[in-house]
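Now for a chain:

_____
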Amino acid sequence: MTLQEKKIFFDIDKTILFLYLCLIFIGLTAVFIVEHNANTSFFSTLFSFNNNFSKQFYFIIFSFIIAFIIILVESNLIVSFAYLSYGIGLFLMILTFVIGENINGSNSWISIGGVLNLQPAELCKVFTSLALAKYYSSMTHNANKKEGIKMIALIIVFIPAILSILQHELGQAIIYLSFMIALYREGFPASILIVSICFAILVLASLIIEPNTLVISLIGIALFFFFFNLKKIKKNKKLGWIIAIILIFSVFIQRFTVPYIFNNLLECYQSTRIYSLIGKDYDCTQNKKRISKDLKLVSRKPDDYNVRQSMIAVGSGGFLGKGLFKSTQTKGKYVPAQHTDFIFTSIGEAFGFLGCSIFLIIYLTFILRLLNIAESQRSTFARVYGYSIVGFFFMQFAINVNMTIGLFPVIGITLPFISYGGSSLFTFTILLFILLKFDIDKQKVFR
C-alpha cells in the first residue's frame, strides 16, 4: 500500500466506520437469530450459502470489497459519472418491466444467475443522489434561475419515484420523498412543506371523519378565516378569493382525490394497510386493481396479522429479552418476513427493551454523525449528496421501526444494514462510502 493510500485510510471518519461495523454485526446477528437451527453447526450454516444467514455473510464480505474500492477511486471520477449512472439506473428500472421477476407482488427485481436478485430501485437511490448533487453544483452560479432549478431538481427525484409506483413498490416511492431534506437544505421554500403537511392532514381527516361532517368542518374553518381577516379582505378582495379557492380545492380533494387514490392508484392490500392503521376496514370491492386473492384476504386481515405478531414478538422480550436463541415467536416462525421487513422483532424479542434502546441509540448516533459530515462539506456537490443519504437512512430507519411496532402502515421497507438482502446492503454501503470518500477529499470543490 502506497503512502497516499495509507493517508486515505488514516483520514477516513473512524467514528462512522466503527458505527457501520457495529450495525453490520448487529444485522448479521439478527438474521442468524431468525435462521438458527439447533441441529446444524454454526460453521456449516455460515459457509453453506443455502440459507439467508450464510448468504448475508457473503453479501457483507462483498460489500466490504465494494467499500474498499470506493475509498481508493478518485472522487472526481465519481462526480464525472453522475449523470451517466443516473441514466443507467433509470434504464435498469425500465428494464424490469421487460425481464423483471415478480417477487411478493412487486415486479421490480432482476435475477442475476439465480444467486442474487437485484432491485434497480435500490441502486437508483445512489444514482439519483449523485445526479441531484451534480445538478445543484453545476447551477451554483445561476441564482437568477432559481424556479427553473427547483423544477428540474424535482423532476430528477420524481422520475424514479414514479417508476417505483409503476413497479408496485409504494415503499420505495415514499423513500424518495426523503430527498426533500436535501432540497430544503439548498433553499426550497417552507411553503411546499406546509402545503404537503396540510394535504396529509386532509387525507387523514378524510379517512377518519364522516364525509359530510368533514365538508361542514372545512366550511366552518373557511368562514372563521374569512371573518377573522374581514378588514384585510375589504382592502384586498384577492384574499377572499384565495380562501374560497382553498375551500373548493379541499372539498374536491376530500370528495374525489382521496377516494381515487385509494380505489384506483393503490392496490387493495396497500389501502387495507393504511386503513388498518387507523382502526378501520377497507372495502376491497371498491378497488379497481383488486384481484381474487385480495378479496379472500380481506376477511383474514393479513396485515393486521403481520403487525399483531410483530408487536407480540417485540413485547414478549420484556426488559432484558429472552436470550439469543430462546425467542418463541422467532422459533415458531410466527412473524412474516422476519429476516427482512420485520428484522427489528428478532432484536426486540431476544434482547428486550434494553437491547432495543442500545440499538436505537447506536443507529441515531450513526445518523447524527452522517448529518455532521454532510454539513461540514465545502462543496455543494458533497453537501447535497450528504443530505440525500441522511434522508434515506433516517426515513427508512424511522418507517421500518414504527412499522414493526404498529405505528406506521406495512409498506415493505427494509432496515439498512440490519435486514437481510444483497441489494439493500450493497446500496447503503455504496451510499455511505461515497460520502466518506467525499469527506476525505473535503478540501476539493466538486462540480
Notes: DSSP finds 21 helices and three strands in the chain. The first helix runs from residue 3 to 11.
